[in-house]
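Quick entry between incubations.
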Amino acid sequence: MIISSGKTVRLNRIFNPNDGRAVCVAADHGWMSDPTPNVLELRRILEQVVLGGADAVLVSYGTALRMGNFFHGKNSPALLIRADWMNMPRLGGSNVSNILPAVNFKKQATSTAKDALLVGASAITIYYFIGYSDEFEAINIEQAATFAKECRKVGLPLIIEPMAVGAPVTGVNITEILIASARIAAEIGADALKIPYTNDVMSFKKLVDEAGVPVLVLGGAKSDEPRDALELVDEAIRAGASGVVFGRNVTKARNPRGMVSDICALVHGNKTVNQILGIGAKKRGRLRPVAANCTGCQMCEFVCTHYHSSEYGQEKSRLRIEFKYKPNEPHTSKPIVCPLCEKCVEACKEGALTIGAEGYLVLEKERCNACGDCVDACPLHLVFLDDDKPILCDLCEGNPQCILWCKQRAIVLTEIKESKQHVS
Amino acid sequence: MNINVGKNIRMSDFIDSKDNRSMLLDLTVTSSIGAQPGTENISETLKQYNTIFDGIILNPGQLEHHANLVGGKLRAAPLVRVDWTNAYRDKEFCLPAATVKRVSLSDGADALTLGASAAVATFLLGFGEDLESENIKSISLLARECYRLSLPLVVDIRPIGGNISADNYTGSIKLGASFMMEAGADALILPECEPETCKLIGMWATVPVIMRCDEVPTSEKAQRMLEAGMTGIVLSEKSLPVPGFDGKATALRSLLHQ
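Done. Structure below.
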């Protein structure tokens, strides 16, 4: 790819030249939606974001003027300026608070490429809305083309953010629209894209391949669990994305610094989500059922059996699905999983069962005399003897397969607080 | 038509001055409907075909990012498409167009900055008066700018609107060609039409006229086009995924420049 010297130099401030990837944080929400705590406490949050090691931060022009100190120095994040404004979060139906609802969708160009260059920006970011109406898309294309021309003139990279919104956009066509919009944005002149994940690796890979310019995946609404956000990053990177632009998942996180640092470990450090969440490392986790999500498919039982015994079936599963039937009501199901209560460990007089340094149950087969005390001690009846050895949940040695395979997220991993840790 | 030296030099980048013939490839529909078969990886497409064609029509973003693969003495000259339209979004596209729009993507100065040998504008016909008048206005202004900048302006005539029928198709092509000559185009791209129409336009057009084809024409068909006064052929992206495209395109090149 050949682009101007100015663009190359500035892109190198955003994308790490060693791996061509970038972890960017979007902190421009106050420009377009309600003054929520992450907007009001932006200075404190940005301090954390910088400490976390973000490669770039996206802010409005005004914020860049007020908080320019965060972008001083070689090791500071690169400054990205949001060069347009829109009122989509205020149209209703969005997942953010809305003090003053809007009826008509509006978008305005608010800064020029030259304005951004003069405040020291390394790129500008603009929206490209597709799907709302043909008229609105044409306005978006025209604005994007004007920005592209200006950016070429002044050597400033242009990041376009395609967003598929509007009545014609459905669950059926959104992936196809996003893939097309990514290419359209590149054809107009985007040097990089900020785009939603398509929810599967294959289609996102197609999007990345066909775009032909670096693709940064955005995080969207704050995920319920940090793991969900990290898994999105992991999948996008595996699909060929060049990094992320995460907003609310960072700025609304309890620990923005930690979140940025975790994302950096995924993007730049080639770590896995499990490694980052500390499964099999310092932090300890345990399985937690989310009964409301369980469909009773019993996939977890099959996966558990196959993973440990290479057998097909449910008999040797270390967890089970419990069904409840009530007359005239739909049946309900719930995963019964090992809560790591350690009753089995306490019951084992031989000391064959321990919680290992990595946080999961470990059986020393040589010490086990197959007395069955652990079987009796388990309040959930999840431990049983097979071939005179206890079968119990070892969290798949830190990589629980039931979690990986349960698409409904009916089983999640929750961290055990430090005070409860029991390291042998 | 009296065009200036700069235009002559740039025109000769994609219309061979020895035989006054040209073979072009148009890869710009992707700005409307995303990647199409054969254009998924634009870099690979350009590497594969940049020595077969005299010129390749690209969108501004693609030309900027792949300028190293076009131009110069041995490779196809870049021509830049300066507008965008959703007119190609039919029912097969994931988001069919309800209202046809056309907006400017680039201008003469930007095209020159990008290193283009010509600006290519689209003239849509058959979509109603509002779109047509805006289209006329924008091409007229572009023609003035291109004249000042010595940049050739190629106009791609597309009679594809709902008001076009079998009865007025040929007439619409003639109308479009006439309008665009009056507007100041330096070359025209026509859709496929009868040899008589080609001959008629070829006779009164004082600028090169190039025919758009969705598949590589047979040698007989190509010969007929040339005899009808056409300067050359523009192959659309639809021609790319056809088996044996490379061989057919190379053979067409030999025929055009023999």
